[in-house]
Amino acid sequence: MRQALDQEPVLTDKKNGVTKFSARKKSEFFVMRDDGTDLTLFMTSNGTSVEARDRQYAKEGERYFLKKEELGLILYTGTGIDYGMLIVPFKYQFSDHSIGGSTTVGAYLGYTVNWLDFASLTPLISFGLSPLTVQSAAGSANNTSVLGLSGAVGVAFTINKFDSSMQGGFVCGQDTAGNSTPTPYKYEGQWWCAAQIGFPFTQ
After folding, report:
1. What is the pLDDT of residues 142-177, one digit of tens each?
2. pTM value?
3. How far is CA 184 from each of CA 91, 137, 146, 180, 181, rounded to the nearest angstrom?
């Protein structure tokens, strides 16, 4: 579910924009379909702003269309179950205080809640795959890369304020290479964390 905050986006009843409708501030809607260009929205609440006489307003329970490129210009937050792809480009290892680039790419599941009317928080869990470096043999100077499993918990956030939007997040997790590697993974089962501001973990 999405909530328009500070603007009244213009919707249409068809993809080609035959009839235009305004969505009131704080209107709520589900994104039913995303074809890469247009979003198909189902209005669940009419919002709270006062109607202007020279506009047609979207109605609750009806389907409308919005250009996807315009959604980036509309300040909104979401409420409800959220899921998608999570990318962790670097990790801070608590065990030896090092920062490494063993990128994790995986899926996440979370629940988004509104906070202070201009921000949203998404507590989440994630599982994915990560390339891990292990020694080719005990005492060897040569390393080899294996595909490991990664699990994490954390929170993502979006702040919509002053006609701009900022995203970020904080996650902590562990990696495992399993028992089939030539030598044990150095950070097997050790906690790591990662944080980003200005660029989201979630996609």
Report:
1. 888 888 999 999 998 877 665 556 788 999 999 998
2. 0.61
3. 19, 10, 11, 9, 6
